[in-house]
């Protein structure tokens, strides 16, 4: 076994026996021999916050056959005090169920359209661990976080998201037990988790920082005052959004739909043109209005000019047309209207504000500031405050936040 010299500390259980078990589980071939194993970090600092990611390059011999080579991604959630809420929410079992059962079923009913990387293996011991195909080996890559997504990138995200939502509607209708109401009742927010110190740091502390920044913008004092009033009730308002109304359209939401949670494949002759996408990290997924995913995505990951001038096109031409076409191909009877989708977005607009408060600063950080960001960075109040302040002073953050605040006032979202 070999290790990359710049690697994170590798857990001792990620040994040859572990990968032998993982490969035998995926290939259904017994007696696999691991000939060589090289482990290194699987993501750069600033790319992943909730988990530790490793990349394994393995040469193995299946049942005495010829040598084969494979590259795998390993995602682990360490058992630390700061990550206790993740274990409390049982997100590993939910994510495992999605990757191993629900998503393959969706891809099947979508005639082979891929939604996520293939999951080879999952275990709870000694810590929550998932093993995936390495999408980079197939030409997939992350988009530029700081720049935000172009219209062509947004198009492919929203069209694939619509297919994901449509497939969930079909499953809820035809296979309701697969998306049991209990397992997918909550995302990250529950009456218990909303008081977790790390959750508070991402949402309540972030709002406090941004109030101090907005106060310095000429003409934006009234918005800062509105944000101050929200500060005392933001957790209650977030929780209220997490319980679907009786007449609400419910789909399986990804619920963490920001730029670092999808990978693109680009056209070889035109590296700015995406041709495919895979979604990552389904640990927060739950059944709720599509307005949750759409508001989250629009307020965190889209280039400002695209968001400002092409918002309606993103929703109607890319998301809704794909949703409608997919449901028609599945012969789904009660296809939601465009007006219904717009209503769902409107009723969850406050979640767009929450997303901007919590995730937008991370997205807008300059590269030099984001390079050393980890989960632990934001668990430390002092360090997190410095990072957020740096992010809130970027041009992109100011543009998006000013746009969002004016829009929120027009819609009465901050009342």
Secondary structure: elements and pairs:
Layout: E1 2-3, H1 16-27, E2 32-41, E3 52-62, E4 68-77, H2 84-88, H3 91-109, E5 119-123, E6 128-133, E7 140-141, H4 151-174, H5 197-214, H6 221-231, H7 234-241, E8 251-253, E9 262-267, E10 270-279, E11 286-288, H8 290-298, H9 304-329, H10 338-347, H11 349-358, H12 360-364, H13 367-370, H14 375-379, H15 381-392, H16 395-411
Parallel strand pairs: 1-2
Antiparallel strand pairs: 2-3, 3-4, 4-6, 5-6, 7-9, 8-11, 9-10
List keywords for this structure.
CHK_kinase-like; 3-stranded antiparallel β-sheet; 11 strands; Dihydrodipicolinate Reductase, domain 2; 16 helices; alpha+beta; single chain; globular; 6-stranded mixed β-sheet; 2 domains; 415 residues
Plain-language structure description:
With 415 residues, the protein is of the alpha+beta class. It folds into 2 domains: 2-77, Dihydrodipicolinate Reductase, domain 2 (2-Layer Sandwich); 139-411, Aminoglycoside 3'-phosphotransferase, Chain: A, domain 2. Helix content is 47%, strand content 16%. It has helices at 16-27, 84-88, 91-109, 151-174, 197-214, 221-231, 234-241, 290-298, 304-329, 338-347, 349-358, 360-364, 367-370, 375-379, 381-392, 395-411, and strands spanning 2-3, 32-41, 52-62, 68-77, 119-123, 128-133, 140-141, 251-253, 262-267, 270-279, 286-288. The chain has a 6-stranded mixed sheet with strand order 1-2-3-4-6-5. Strands 7-9-10 form a 3-stranded antiparallel sheet. Strand 1, helix 1 (16-27) and strand 2 (32-41) form a beta-alpha-beta unit. The chain is globular. The model has no long low-confidence stretch (mean pLDDT 88).
């Amino acid at each position: 076994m070999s290790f990359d010299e710049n690697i994170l500390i590798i857990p001792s259980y990620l040994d040859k026996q572990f990968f032998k078990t993982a490969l035998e589980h995926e290939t259904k071939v017994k007696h696999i021999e691991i000939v060589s194993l090289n482990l290194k970090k699987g993501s750069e600092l600033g790319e992943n916050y909730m988990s530790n990611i490793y990349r394994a390059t393995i040469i193995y011999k299946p049942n005495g056959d010829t040598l084969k080579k494979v590259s795998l991604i390993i995602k682990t959630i360490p058992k630390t005090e700061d990550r206790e809420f993740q274990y409390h929410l049982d997100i590993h079992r939910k994510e495992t169920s999605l990757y191993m059962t629900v998503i393959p079923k969706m891809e099947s009913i979508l005639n082979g359209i891929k939604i996520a990387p293939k999951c080879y293996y999952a275990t709870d011991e000694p810590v929550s661990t998932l093993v995936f195909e390495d999408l980079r080996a197939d030409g997939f890559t992350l988009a530029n976080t700081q720049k935000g997504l172009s219209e062509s990138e947004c198009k492919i995200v929203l069209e694939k998201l619509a297919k994901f939502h449509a497939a969930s509607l079909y499953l809820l209708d035809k296979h309701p037990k697969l998306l049991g109401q209990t397992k997918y009742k909550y995302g990250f927010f529950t009456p218990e988790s909303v008081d977790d110190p790390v959750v508070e740091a991402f949402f309540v502390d972030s709002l406090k920082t941004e109030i101090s920044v907005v106060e310095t913008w000429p003409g934006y004092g009234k918005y800062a005052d509105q944000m101050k009033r929200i500060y005392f009730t933001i957790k209650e308002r977030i929780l209220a959004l997490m319980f679907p109304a009786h007449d609400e359209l419910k789909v399986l939401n990804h619920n963490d739909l920001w730029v670092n949670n999808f990978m693109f494949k680009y056209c070889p002759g035109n590296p700015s043109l995406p041709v495919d996408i895979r979604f990552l990290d389904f640990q927060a997924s739950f059944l709720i209005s599509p307005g949750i995913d759409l508001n989250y995505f629009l307020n965190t990951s889209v280039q400002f000019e695209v968001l400002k001038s092409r918002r309606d096109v993103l929703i109607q031409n890319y998301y809704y047309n794909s949703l409608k076409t997919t449901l028609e191909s599945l012969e789904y009877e009660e296809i939601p209207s465009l007006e219904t989708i717009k209503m769902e977005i409107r009723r969850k607009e406050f979640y767009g504000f929450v997303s901007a408060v919590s995730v937008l600063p991370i997205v807008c950080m300059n590269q030099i500031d984001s390079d050393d960001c980890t989960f632990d960075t934001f668990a430390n109040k002092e360090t997190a405050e410095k990072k957020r302040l740096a992010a809130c002073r970027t041009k992109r953050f100011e543009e998006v936040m000013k746009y969002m605040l004016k829009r929120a006032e027009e819609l009465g979202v901050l009342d």
